[in-house]
Structure formats: C-alpha cells, structure tokens
C-alpha cells in the first residue's frame, strides 16, 4: 500500500535527481498543474509526484521511464483524491482491480474494462506486492484480442484509490487486500497466470473478459463493442 504523502518536497529533493530526471519531473509537474488547476496547488501536486517517483525508484530496472511512470501514477492518485474530497467527480462508475503483483489478472481486467467501457467508466488497478513488470504472456494474450497493455506497469493500491472506487474487485490477494467499511467488494477466483505460457493464460483471459462484461452490465455501462 502507498500512504497519502504528507511532507512536501524541498529544493534538496530536486538536487538528488539526475539532470534528465529533474527536467522530466519538472515537465510532469507542469502537466499535472495544468490538469488540476483550481483543484490542487503546486505543493500537493509535487508531493504526490515525488512520492510516486520514490515508489518506483527502488524497483525499476529502466530508470529512463521513471518520470513517466511517476506522472501517470500521481495523476491517478490525484484524480482519486479529488473524488474522495468532493473537489471533482464526473459521476462515472469507478472500478479498482486488485491482485497480488498487479502483473497479470488485474492488468487484463483493467484492459478489458477500459476497452469495453471507453469514456463511460473508469478503471484502475493495483497490487498488494507489485511486481517488476506486467506478465509477457498476459500482454501477448491481450494483444490477441486487440488490446495493448504493454505500456502498463505494476503499482500498489493506495488509500485514495480504494476510497474513490465504487467497486473493488479482488483476485487472490486475501487478507492483504484493503477493506473499507461500506465499500462494494467482489472476489474473483481465478487461476494465477504468473509463470504460465500463452496457452495457459488464454482461458484465464477469456474468463476475465466474461466477468468484466457482466460487471459492466450490472453497472449499466454500455459496452463499445
């Protein structure tokens, strides 16, 4: 889990970055300030951006992608916080898919949900123990269905994303999955695709699609195709 950050970054925080990372993060901060103008101030945005950057810095194998990952993760968290605090809510149903490593089942579920719902609903995903990369067999299986999840990356669940979700779908994370009173939860019992080849992942993928379509029907979200 990632807690909501409380301490703002200081000038020294920028100094520990490489020049390339510093430039990229400043660009990311500018992008987020533009998107959340009138919702959050610069201090809050930079606090979330840096805590997101720190989250991936300890495990990333390719550092040049760190600022982009941090920006995307910070954006998701800020969107969730805005909804939780009543600062912005577009009324779209929001679903959070959780598994252990956020590398297979939850990524495929988010991929199907986003593809089928389009702009009519929002999907996030996370893991109790995020892995290093999305399972290549899951990426290949989704590509067969015309859905590209190759640019996704494992990330933790956070307090604000759980609190902002209308439905939380858990897949095998057991007691490590967050429980908030009054929240709608569903446990999807699915085989874990970790370490499996494409042939073994296909039926898992197909079952996930079936469940996602049923969930969208329950939420009265029209599917794109």
Automatic annotation (TrEMBL):
SMART domains: LMWPc (SM00226). Keywords: Arsenical resistance. Residues 93-218 form the Phosphotyrosine protein phosphatase I domain. This is Arsenate reductase ArsC. It comes from Cryptosporangium japonicum. The lineage of its organism: Bacteria, Bacillati, Actinomycetota, Actinomycetes, Cryptosporangiales.
